[in-house]
Amino acid sequence: MTTRSLFLLPGDGIGPETMAEVAKLIDHMNAKEGAGFVTDQGLVGGSAYDAHGEAISDADMDKAMAADAVLFGAVGGPKWDDVPYEQRPEAGLLRLRKDMALFANLRPAICYPALADASSLKRDVIEGLDILIVRELTGGVYFGEPKEITDLGNGQKRGVDTQVYDTFEIERIAGVAFELARTRSNKVCSMEKRNVMKSGVLWNEVVTATHAAHYADVELTHMLADAGGMQLVRWPKQFDVIVTDNLFGDMLSDVAAMLTGSLGMLPSASLGAPDPATGKRKALYEPVHGSAPDIAGKGIANPIAMIASFAMCLRYSFAMIDEAVRIEAAVAKVLDDGLRTGDIMGDGARPVSTAEMGDAIVAAYAAG
Ligand code: IPM
Ligand code: MG
């Protein structure tokens, strides 16, 4: 029998309660479909800091590296506001991304028909929306050196972060965006700030050259990232795939999330390069929302982004396309049936808890 190893890192805040709903799906698929998932669980973020003084232990890093895929919940919360910078909860996530070399972050923003009224934008602007943000994830200002605060000795300090991109980093993320565009509406919009940033000038040049050399069949446009943010809320359906750097991708994907009704709806996949020998990619799947400490532990969080992240895992790590489609259909079904967690509540809908939403999705999956 095939075994498929999953390493679960629920993390902090609403991470554990949303991960518990994915665990129900995994159990169901193992029991009823012989899916052969073998899971192990570790600590990341504040919970890891509490247990061993760092945001992820070396032992858990090793398990993440060895697994077929990692499912990640969320990290952070006010409890850890005062821990040293190097050990802050987010450092665990950044180490996973960097050490696993997960350079390609896929953030699809799909507006489920039933949720078109949950968005703060007008229905006709977002109805039928299906865009994909491809965010570079292991470079740019997140990791560039120097990264420091220095004392200038005159009562002033200086904070420095470094935005840096090499040609190969831009080429490989552009390649991912173009390849994915070919499976969708065949359009890529690249976003940077070439009007003020040298890294933006290079980004623009390399994306243009990569396109001309290998992907001329794909429609390519360029936009300054600020204008791109504006266009995302003005008329998001003009986009198919957006490719952008680490920091702009962070911001633009939160904007895109709200187009879909709630940050609680957006999944993501973070992928490494295919192994030359096996073709397998290292991969981590996580909801775009954070740990939401204000609602953690109340059983009211929306588990859909976490569940949809698991669907992405099935698609990208295990080529279980039918199962992924069925999970997505199950999500659409429960939304059509009017089930809503608080973040996507609307007139006449039925308020449900995290667990009720998870149970309903498993039931719809089983029936589908
Ligand atoms: C995200 C998050 C992270 C990021 C944080 C938690 C470090 O906002 O995945 O979008 O900035 O990348
Ligand atoms: Mg973010």
Automatic annotation (TrEMBL):
It is an enzyme of class 1 (oxidoreductase). It comes from the Bacteria. NAD(+) binds at residues 77-90, 290-302. Keywords: Amino-acid biosynthesis, Branched-chain amino acid biosynthesis, Cytoplasm, Leucine biosynthesis, Magnesium, Manganese, Metal-binding, NAD, Oxidoreductase. One of its GO terms (biological process) is L-leucine biosynthetic process. It is found in: Cytoplasm. Substrate binds at residues 97, 107, 135, 226. Pathway: Amino-acid biosynthesis; L-leucine biosynthesis; L-leucine from 3-methyl-2-oxobutanoate: step 3/4. Binds 1 Mg(2+) or Mn(2+) ion per subunit. It catalyses: (2R,3S)-3-isopropylmalate + NAD(+) = 4-methyl-2-oxopentanoate + CO2 + NADH. Residues 5-361 form the Isopropylmalate dehydrogenase-like domain. GO terms for molecular function: 3-isopropylmalate dehydrogenase activity; magnesium ion binding; NAD binding. PROSITE patterns: IDH_IMDH. The record marks 142, 193 as: Important for catalysis. Pfam families: Iso_dh. InterPro entries: IsoCit/isopropylmalate_DH_CS, IsoPropMal-DH-like_dom, Isopropylmalate_DH. Its cofactor is Mn(2+); Mg(2+). GO terms for cellular component: cytosol. Mg(2+) binds at residues 226, 250, 254. Its EC number is 1.1.1.85. NCBIfam families: leuB (TIGR00169). Catalyzes the oxidation of 3-carboxy-2-hydroxy-4-methylpentanoate (3-isopropylmalate) to 3-carboxy-4-methyl-2-oxopentanoate. The product decarboxylates to 4-methyl-2 oxopentanoate. Belongs to the isocitrate and isopropylmalate dehydrogenases family. LeuB type 1 subfamily. Homodimer. This is 3-isopropylmalate dehydrogenase.
